[in-house]
UniProtKB/TrEMBL annotation:
InterPro entries: Alkaline_phosphatase_core_sf (IPR017850), OpgB/LTA_synthase_biosynth (IPR050448), Sulfatase_N (IPR000917)
Alphabetized Pfam families for the sequence: Sulfatase
The name this protein goes by in its record: Sulfatase N-terminal domain-containing protein
Superkingdom to which the source organism belongs: Bacteria
Subcellular location: Cell membrane
Predominant place of localization: membrane
Keyword Cell membrane set for record: yes
Membrane-spanning intervals of the chain: 31-52, 64-81
Annotated membrane topology: Multi-pass membrane protein
Native organism: Orbus sasakiae
Keywords: Cell membrane, Membrane, Transmembrane, Transmembrane helix
Record-annotated Sulfatase N-terminal domain positions: 126-351
């Protein structure tokens, strides 16, 4: 199991691995990582065979005391910071976090003045477009032959390069939950499909804040079943737009839509939403750059040159499609009253691929690209920002005024929030679990 975790997620078994041990995610994982899954199974049986042989030799050659000493040494060698035993302790710490009254959970975490949903007051600001790009971490910007268009946008708009990935926000659903609620996706309880039995949360989300100001809210994603993200989106009261809304219009694709079609739908939705007098917030998730090799769209061959590998071609296609969407917004003057936010959902997963090798040449980080005015944003581009900061950044950058508060609003500016989350996993898990309502 540890080998599988290292190969697919790049680390030892942790909470992220635990919550993806359900039938739906396992089937999706096998669909995406076909060859890798086969190789992992082969390696697993080879290791079992070798361990069996080693155990037989030790049983014949070593007495009981020496074997016990070897076992103790082996266990001690695994017990270090961020090691296998430490990560298993993280799973225990999160899953054993109790469910208590929501107000008690808030007070325990010193969030006693946290405004409830019925207390939220909001004054509308600009329109909002949030684009979460699948696994498209900052290292892709260093590959200028792959991302020429996004590098141009990086020079034109505000770019935040100092954004580490944090615990509880390191996979698609968790990342979305974090930027919607300002809380990492750490959920108490022994459940590999957290919140699946919950229909709403008492945590204030972007959906709650925006609905108070009569925003139209929609979320475009290729397939709502992907990583269980559709259920979480529904908890925030945001309408989902997917391939099912356009039957027969787009070609079949892994997980519903290729990125080219996702942005085509985004253009249609922007046109439709702009016709109304109400402000809008459009959320978009791409999928084609999913590890390990991405999802190849042969239609892009007419505009994208061939690259050395599949992922490079797919990444270059995303660079083109995303930049074309931003150009469309500029041409239609949508950006006169609309703020966009572009960021990766998480770092590229896996190991042993050329893509991971290229991305690992420098420190691996996330980023934020936005056209929001610097004066409206709560952080300078040189500051460290974190995934838990995103709801505050999104609202402030769009000049949305509200009394809503998020976790980041209670934390001292300049605090290393990645470390803070590590140190308060249990409290966060209790809040998330206690906030759920069936």
């Amino acid at each position: 199991m540890e080998l599988i975790s290292i190969y697919f997620s790049g680390g030892f078994i942790d909470y992220q691995f635990y919550v993806n041990l359900n039938i739906n995610d396992i089937i999706e994982g096998l669909f995406i990582f076909k060859l890798q899954a086969l190789l992992t199974i082969v390696v697993f049986f080879v290791f079992v065979f070798l361990l069996f042989k080693l155990a037989s030799i030790c049983q014949r050659k070593l007495n009981v005391m020496l074997r016990l000493m070897g076992l103790v040494i082996a266990v001690i060698s695994l017990n270090y910071a961020h090691g296998p035993i430490d990560k298993l302790g993280e799973i225990y710490q999160v899953t054993q976090s109790p469910k208590i009254a929501f107000n008690d959970a808030l007070q325990k975490f010193n969030l006693s003045d946290y405004p409830t949903k019925d207390q939220i007051q909001t004054v509308a600001g600009k329109n909002i477009i949030v684009i979460s790009v699948e696994s498209f971490e900052q290292g892709f910007f260093d590959l200028e032959q792959i991302t020429p268009n996004l590098n141009k946008l990086r020079q034109k708009y505000a770019f935040y390069p100092n954004m580490p990935m944090s615990t509880g926000s390191s996979w698609t659903t968790a990342s979305m939950y974090t930027y919607m609620t300002g809380m990492p996706f750490l959920i108490g309880g022994m459940n590999t499909t957290p919140l699946s039995d919950v229909t709403q949360t008492q945590l204030v989300s972007l959906g709650d804040v925006l609905h108070k100001a009569n925003y139209q809210t929609k979320y475009i994603i290729g397939s709502p079943t992907f990583a269980g993200i559709g259920h979480i989106i529904s908890m925030f009261g945001i309408d989902i737009i997917c391939e099912k809304n356009y039957p027969g219009v787009y070609p079949p694709a892994p997980f519903g839509l290729y990125d080219k079609d996702t942005f085509d739908i985004a253009r249609k939705q922007v046109d439709e939403l702009s016709q109304n007098d109400k402000p809008f917030a459009l959320f978009i998730s791409t999928i084609s750059t999913h590890a390990p090799n991405g999802f190849y769209d042969e239609r892009m061959e007419t505009v994208i040159n061939q690259h050395q590998d599949n992922m490079s071609f797919v990444a270059s296609s995303l660079d083109y499609n995303l930049s074309q969407f931003i150009a469309y917004l500029e041409q239609k003057r949508i950006l006169d009253n609309t703020v966009f936010y572009i960021f990766p959902d998480h770092l590229m997963m896996g190991s042993g691929t050329q893509t991971i090798a290229n991305l690992s040449k420098n420190e691996r980080r996330l980023y934020l690209l936005t056209n929001a005015a610097a004066a409206d944003l709560p952080y300078a581009v040189t500051d460290n920002i974190y995934q838990v900061d995103m709801p505050r950044i999104i609202l402030d950058g769009a000049k949305v005024k509200s009394n809503a508060k998020f976790l980041t609003d209670y934390l001292e500016k300049g605090l290393n929030k990645k470390v803070f989350i590590e140190e308060h996993k249990s409290d966060i898990a209790t809040i998330n679990q206690s906030a759920g309502a069936e």
